[in-house]
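REVIEWER CHECKLIST
Item 1: Sequence provided? yes
Item 2: Single chain? yes
Item 3: Sequence as submitted:
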Amino acid sequence: MDLYDIFQGRWTDQKWKRLGEYLKGREIHAGRGITIEDSSSSGTIISAEQIRQIPPTQAPPFSVLAIRRVPESDPAEYKIQIQEGWVIERDTLGGSGTDAIDFHEVSIGAQLISARPRPEITVEENNWVYLHYKTDDKGYVKQGETVTVGGVTYNLPAVIPYSSAQLSVHHQPPSGDCGTSIEGSYFIKLFQFVLEDNGPKIIVYQQSDVEHSKLPNFENVGGERFIHSQRNGGSDQYEFKTLEQIEPTGRTFGKVIVPVPAGESECDLETIKFSAIAERSSDPQIRVNDSGDGVITVQGNSYDVNIGFLKCDGTYASTLTFKDGLLVSASSSTIGVGECNDGSYPGGSG
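Item 4: Structure as written out by the authors:
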């Protein structure tokens, strides 16, 4: 229907009705999730469809699933079921055939938390519930460790209720040769159980898997003097030894460690330079021989000679022996050279 059809011929009540419907006409292209309806009076109602919220298929890790009162218990005790969770560890050892991510399943008592029927923990008012696990001094999670709390033995890692707050001990790696290592004992606070208006209340602290990380571990290899001293847990830093240069007093000396160039700071340098032992640039009498295997030999000029001093009777007063260009022996007496009584010189020269 259009205006041309309406205005053909004479006016009638039907045409007025059709004209009114035309003037109220609409053409709306609604997107997904939009509803278009005619109003009961006049006009059009456009509304968004209600989106149905899809509930999660599983509760978060270590969340409380169910609470029940232990009948006739005094003081009041409650049994709690907890959703499964994991202690996740990055295995940095690597290598072929080794999984770089380890999942450690958690227990309640002697049962795995994933057992069916679900295991339960027993709590009282103001109890703290922790995930407890231990590590060796290198930070690797221990399996097979057990602890006994309130007469119940738990296989670690485990969810355990405590009557008071617990403190964790961070592992300290056996770095260097001067420090001591410490094994780790970790308490991850999951929730606190309280009673409010005679009803149970959960104060939540964590509802997720636990990601465990390890500190770096440094080791001095080889023998002799070590560069890495220790990890200082009190200052949370690794300590390394410093190269020290001995400077003799009252003597001329060359620096073994090359000083920082003028205008630069130690932090500007990427290398530590050491002075080299070298021969004199011209006519060296003392030679330096580097074997290439870490031995530097300081030697003479390879000349071996004996110098003898004759007396007037033809015998030697003394002999000086030079080996490798260096004097190695001499007479302890004074050697004099002069004319003989007949005016000649020892050896016939004159």
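Item 5: Key structural point noted by reviewer: The first strand starts at residue 34 and ends at 38.
Item 6: Recommendation: ____
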